[in-house]
Each structure stands twice: as C-alpha cells, then as structure tokens.
User: Fold Triosephosphate isomerase from Nocardioides scoriae.
Amino acid sequence: TSGRTPLMAGNWKMNLNHQEAVVLVQKLSWTLSDKKHDHAAVEVAVIPPFTDIRSVQTLVDGDRLQIRYGAQDVSAHESGAYTGEVSASMLAKLGCSYALVGHSERRQHHGEDDALVSAKAHAAHAAGITPLVCVGEGLDVRREGRQVEHTLAQVDGSLAGFTPEQVAGLVVAYEPVWAIGTGEVATPEDAQEVCGAIRARLAETHGEEAAAGVRVLYGGSVKAANVAGIMQKPDIDGALVGGASLQVDEFGGICRFY
Ligand code: PEP
Assistant:
C-alpha cells in the first residue's frame, strides 16, 4: 500500500446557496454514517461556493463532522486593492483545508495560466491551506496523443517554486477536460497513464519522497458506479467529483468505494 490517505473531494461549482449547502452537508454526513464510512481510511471534502463556506464551517464545527471543506479558488495576493478576490488567510480563518487552483473552468473562462496557478497555490500553502492543483488536457490534445507531455508541462509550471517537502503534502488533480461534465469518463488505464506520469515527473524534479507523498486525484465524470475501477490503479489517490457531488447517494457511494 502507498500509505497515502485517499481523498474524495466534491466540487460543487456554482451551485447551491448557503442554506442548501447546510442541507447537503448534513445529509452527506448522515449518509456516510449509515454506510459506516471510515473517515480515517478515506478523507471526504466538499468544495462549495465562497458564500456557503461560513455556514458549512458552523455546521461542521457545531456537529463535529469529520467532513473537510475548501474553496474553489483563492487570490494570489495577500490583501489590498483586489476587488472581488478572496484571500487565503480569509479562507484559513473559515477553517478551509483545501483550495482548488487552476480548475479547467478557470483556465478556460478566466484566462488562468500556470504562472498564476502557481502563485495561487503558494498563497494557499502559505496560509496553511492545501492547494488542490488541477491539470489536464483538452480533447484536441488527447486526439493528438499528447496528453502526457501537455499535462506534465502544466505540472511543472503550476508547481514551480515548491520545495520537495512542500510537494509531498500537495494534491494534484488530473482532470482531462473532455471528461468533465460530459459523462465521458476516462478508462482506469487512461487515468493511470497520466497520473503515473505525474508522479514519475515529480520524482525526477523533487525526489522520490515528494513523489511518494503527493496525492494525485482523477477527475472527470466520476460516479459511484465507476469509481472502484479507477481507485484500483496504483497512482490514483482519490477523485475530484463535480456533478455527482451534488447528489448525496452518488457522492456517498463514491466515498464508500472500498
Ligand atoms: C470537476 O468539475 O472537477 C469535475 C470532475 O466534474 P464532473 O465530475 O461533473 O465531470
């Protein structure tokens, strides 16, 4: 066994207001206890919109839930004249364990490049938040068979400036863009090919210990019915789940894949 604790993270995207968020987290918690989920064996996290996080914190703290939570983005800046942005220290104050950085929807619709993703990842890390760094190729790149080189270039750029000790504690999510929200799941072999290449690259650039520690997730149309095959692969340490994370039974089933 790898010694890496699997992580199942639910990216809600721009769905659910703060009241709906509380309902979903409460139901998720009940579902996981019904299923006798072992939180030490598989970590569960929800990634709601910013406006929900305070309410999720109140519920998680008040009921001592073992569910962790995070944000879908974070500013690269510490504070100041950055209208509309949310800083890592603000998220840390709300008890966030994680922040997504470089999700493909932000790379596509908000022009985020690897340099900005790296700056955001450093801002999160400096505030004690684990960045969940998203990488992955689009359909054109996949058709040309260049998914590995494309994704590794994103890994190099997005993790620039991290020390080996820091890399060991990070999370990288491999999300082929053509599999996000499309129902088109990568085969376990496709996912392993790139996740294995990411770990091998980090072994080269940051050493074996960093590579052995870093958690690499797969994301792209993960469901309760397909998660087990993906989780059998040696270099896949969990899933980043979009659509299915809004359905308690689906997401509960994903967390309870073992
Ligand atoms: C995502 O947005 O990170 C994602 C993987 O979405 P979906 O599961 O809906 O494909």
User: Anything to note?
Assistant: The chain has one domain: 7-255.
